[in-house]
Known about the structure:
mainly alpha
Amino acid sequence: MVRVTYGAPRRQKKNRYFKQARGFRGGRSKLWRTVRETLLRSWAFAFRDRKQRKRQFRRLWIIRINAAARQRGINYSSLMSGLTKTEIELNRKQLSELAIHDPAAFDAIVDQAKEALAAR
Length: 120
Protein backbone atom coordinates (compact mmCIF):
# COMPACT_ATOMS: atom_id res chain seq x y z
CA MET A 1 0.00 0.00 0.00
CA VAL A 2 0.98 3.57 -0.61
CA ARG A 3 2.11 5.64 2.35
CA VAL A 4 -0.07 8.74 2.88
CA THR A 5 2.01 11.93 2.93
CA TYR A 6 -0.74 14.59 2.87
CA GLY A 7 0.93 15.95 -0.26
CA ALA A 8 -1.00 19.08 -1.19
CA PRO A 9 -1.91 20.33 2.31
CA ARG A 10 1.60 19.68 3.58
CA ARG A 11 3.17 21.57 0.69
CA GLN A 12 0.75 24.47 1.20
CA LYS A 13 1.61 24.68 4.89
CA LYS A 14 5.33 24.62 4.15
CA ASN A 15 4.91 27.29 1.50
CA ARG A 16 3.04 29.49 3.99
CA TYR A 17 5.88 29.12 6.51
CA PHE A 18 8.61 29.72 3.93
CA LYS A 19 6.80 32.81 2.70
CA GLN A 20 6.76 34.21 6.25
CA ALA A 21 10.45 33.37 6.69
CA ARG A 22 11.58 35.36 3.67
CA GLY A 23 14.33 37.80 4.57
CA PHE A 24 15.70 35.64 7.39
CA ARG A 25 19.41 34.84 7.13
CA GLY A 26 20.87 31.53 6.02
CA GLY A 27 19.06 28.34 6.93
CA ARG A 28 16.44 30.29 8.83
CA SER A 29 14.75 30.93 5.49
CA LYS A 30 15.68 27.73 3.62
CA LEU A 31 15.61 24.71 5.95
CA TRP A 32 12.18 23.43 6.99
CA ARG A 33 12.98 22.52 10.60
CA THR A 34 14.92 25.71 11.21
CA VAL A 35 12.21 27.82 9.56
CA ARG A 36 9.58 26.27 11.80
CA GLU A 37 11.61 26.83 14.98
CA THR A 38 12.46 30.40 14.01
CA LEU A 39 8.88 31.31 13.19
CA LEU A 40 7.53 29.82 16.41
CA ARG A 41 10.02 31.89 18.37
CA SER A 42 9.28 35.02 16.36
CA TRP A 43 5.54 34.62 16.94
CA ALA A 44 6.18 34.26 20.68
CA PHE A 45 8.31 37.42 20.69
CA ALA A 46 5.68 39.28 18.66
CA PHE A 47 2.96 38.33 21.15
CA ARG A 48 5.12 39.35 24.11
CA ASP A 49 6.29 42.59 22.54
CA ARG A 50 2.78 43.76 21.65
CA LYS A 51 2.25 43.94 25.41
CA GLN A 52 5.67 45.42 26.15
CA ARG A 53 5.26 48.19 23.56
CA LYS A 54 2.53 49.73 25.69
CA ARG A 55 4.75 49.64 28.79
CA GLN A 56 7.71 51.12 26.93
CA PHE A 57 5.69 54.01 25.54
CA ARG A 58 4.30 54.80 28.99
CA ARG A 59 7.87 54.83 30.39
CA LEU A 60 8.97 57.16 27.57
CA TRP A 61 6.10 59.57 28.21
CA ILE A 62 6.85 59.65 31.94
CA ILE A 63 10.54 60.34 31.27
CA ARG A 64 9.65 63.20 28.91
CA ILE A 65 7.13 64.72 31.33
CA ASN A 66 9.61 64.48 34.20
CA ALA A 67 12.35 66.17 32.18
CA ALA A 68 10.05 68.99 31.08
CA ALA A 69 8.63 69.43 34.59
CA ARG A 70 12.08 69.57 36.20
CA GLN A 71 13.02 72.39 33.81
CA ARG A 72 10.08 74.27 35.32
CA GLY A 73 11.06 73.59 38.94
CA ILE A 74 8.79 70.67 39.85
CA ASN A 75 9.25 66.92 39.67
CA TYR A 76 7.00 64.36 38.01
CA SER A 77 5.21 63.03 41.07
CA SER A 78 4.45 66.51 42.39
CA LEU A 79 3.17 67.55 38.97
CA MET A 80 0.85 64.54 38.75
CA SER A 81 -0.36 65.14 42.31
CA GLY A 82 -1.08 68.78 41.49
CA LEU A 83 -2.96 67.77 38.34
CA THR A 84 -5.23 65.42 40.27
CA LYS A 85 -5.93 68.16 42.84
CA THR A 86 -6.88 70.62 40.08
CA GLU A 87 -8.89 67.86 38.34
CA ILE A 88 -7.01 68.25 35.07
CA GLU A 89 -7.48 64.94 33.31
CA LEU A 90 -4.75 64.70 30.68
CA ASN A 91 -3.13 61.36 30.07
CA ARG A 92 0.62 60.93 29.96
CA LYS A 93 0.75 60.77 26.18
CA GLN A 94 -1.05 64.11 25.86
CA LEU A 95 1.14 65.72 28.52
CA SER A 96 4.25 64.47 26.78
CA GLU A 97 3.10 65.85 23.43
CA LEU A 98 2.26 69.20 25.05
CA ALA A 99 5.68 69.37 26.68
CA ILE A 100 7.37 68.82 23.30
CA HIS A 101 5.16 70.69 20.84
CA ASP A 102 3.41 73.37 22.93
CA PRO A 103 5.66 74.51 25.80
CA ALA A 104 3.43 77.51 26.60
CA ALA A 105 0.43 75.28 27.30
CA PHE A 106 2.60 72.94 29.37
CA ASP A 107 3.84 75.97 31.35
CA ALA A 108 0.24 76.92 32.11
CA ILE A 109 -0.56 73.38 33.27
CA VAL A 110 2.54 73.28 35.49
CA ASP A 111 1.60 76.67 37.02
CA GLN A 112 -1.88 75.37 37.86
CA ALA A 113 -0.39 72.25 39.44
CA LYS A 114 2.02 74.37 41.51
CA GLU A 115 -0.84 76.59 42.72
CA ALA A 116 -2.84 73.52 43.79
CA LEU A 117 0.15 72.16 45.70
CA ALA A 118 0.80 75.52 47.40
CA ALA A 119 -2.85 75.80 48.48
CA ARG A 120 -2.59 72.68 50.66
